[in-house]
Design goal:
It comes from Streptomyces mooreae. It holds the Pfam family HTH_31. The chain is built from 14 helices and 5 strands. The chain is of the alpha+beta class.
């Protein structure tokens, strides 16, 4: 499990270490600074709370922290909107996921939540777009739950993968093909970690998210390096460049849409600029036989 007391402590320490005291108008003080960033007492002063209380918050020993205190700490640490949301999520009282409350393990251990599924109506929507728009649905922990035919052709061979391996983070960090595929693999890796950490803040006790994070921490040195930066950033739209081995470079704009009836799922679509080389290459890709190998993520 991603224990809240560990997560909030690590997050706050990294965030205060990232700030420059001089830029905030803070003096060096009587004792020379031995570490980067702000001291605990300086964060407490900027947030308008006692040093003891801030220390207990950072050590995970302060239950039921009010929203106003969290907002004050967020302002003191100059957190972004995404980071502020993450702080509120990991500081909230821990509750079992709704699915767990109904079906705990018989031995009293942590429950196992069934893999998410996509409603037939959403699959029909995906299939309706497949001639021109690659699309897929992502679930908790960045699991790839469904896709259309064209979406599968710009992705790994998803049908050939075991269901528990159809996960964006696992593919980006553990499949060697991903590095050849992304024109800027490091940027893609940072994006994925930022999204996964945001997911872990929303669902800190979700077994699937914990499984993915723990596997990556154990198997990927690059994932550990980026995860330890405490980066939180949900990338919901933008442009990506894929070096597809069959049709060449694809420059695609992507958009993510939260499904109102399934808020833990997001529909992700990819489009090309009209008249561009990528538009033509997507048509070429769509014409390939379904059995042809595909290698991108």
């Amino acid at each position: 499990m991603l224990h809240a007391e560990i997560e909030i402590g690590s997050f706050l320490k990294v965030r205060r270490a990232a700030l420059d005291p001089a830029e905030l108008g803070l003096p060096d003080g009587v004792n020379r600074r031995r570490v980067r960033g702000l001291r605990r007492e300086e964060v407490a002063q900027l947030a308008g709370i006692s040093v003891d209380y801030y220390t207990r918050i950072e050590q995970g020993r302060a239950p039921a922290i009010s929203d106003s205190v969290l907002d004050a700490i967020a302002r003191a640490l100059r957190l972004s909107d995404g980071e502020m949301t993450y702080l509120h999520n990991v500081a909230a009282p821990r509750r079992r996921p709704a699915d767990c409350a109904a079906a705990p393990d018989s031995d009293g251990g942590p429950c196992t939540v069934a893999r998410q599924t996509v409603r037939p109506e959403i699959q029909r929507l995906l299939d309706a777009m497949e001639a021109t728009v690659p699309a897929m649905v992502l679930g908790r922990g960045l699991d790839i739950l469904a896709w259309n035919a064209l979406g599968g052709r710009i992705s790994f061979d998803l049908p050939a993968l075991a269901p528990d391996r159809r996960n964006t983070a696992l593919l980006v960090f553990l499949d060697p093909a991903a590095r050849a595929l992304h024109a800027d693999w490091e940027a893609k890796a940072v994006e994925v970690v930022g999204n996964l950490r945001a997911e872990s803040g929303r669902h800190p006790e979700d077994p699937r998210i914990c499984e993915v994070v723990n596997e990556l921490l154990a198997r990927s040195r690059d994932f550990r390096r980026i995860w330890e930066t405490q980066s939180v950033s949900e990338c919901l739209c933008g442009t990506k460049s894929l070096l597809h081995p069959r049709v060449g470079e694809l420059v695609l704009t992507f958009e993510s849409f939260r499904l109102s009836a399934d808020p833990d799922q997001a529909l992700v679509t990819y489009t090309a600029e009209r008249g561009s080389k990528t538009e033509g290459r997507l048509r070429e890709l769509g014409a390939l036989a379904l059995g042809d190998p595909v290698l991108s993520a």
